[in-house]
Specification:
Order of helices and strands: HHEHEEEHH
Structural class: alpha+beta
Strand content: 15-25%
Shape: elongated
Number of strands: 4
Oligomer: single chain
Largest sheet: 2 strands, antiparallel
Helix content: 40-55%
Strand order of the largest sheet: 1-2
Radius of gyration: 19 Å
Length: 87
């Protein structure tokens, strides 16, 4: 039992239970969000909301940037963008 508790403590690490600072909360509240159109069209609501970061999968189509939850969704969109744009 002691080994399990020590392993758990090591995994959690010091300070793992600290709250985010006000600046971190403010940054998160103002983060750019987008919708993964592939997930939205397929009803995968868990992946629809995408927080846009430098490494977020994206593509340009007709002058607009679209963001995705994964590289696979980006590839699916690029195969048939009009399918996901509802045009």
């Amino acid at each position: 039992m002691t080994q399990v508790l020590l392993a758990l403590a090591a995994l959690l690490g010091a300070g793992a239970c600290t709250s985010p600072s006000p600046a971190e909360r403010d940054a998160a509240a103002h983060a750019l969000h987008a919708q993964c159109l592939v997930c939205k069209s397929e009803g995968d609501l868990a992946c629809v909301d995408v927080t846009v970061r430098d490494d977020t999968p994206r593509t340009e189509y007709k002058g607009t940037t679209y963001y995705f939850c994964s590289q696979q969704c980006r590839k699916d969109f690029e195969k048939d963008p009009e399918k996901y744009l509802g045009r």
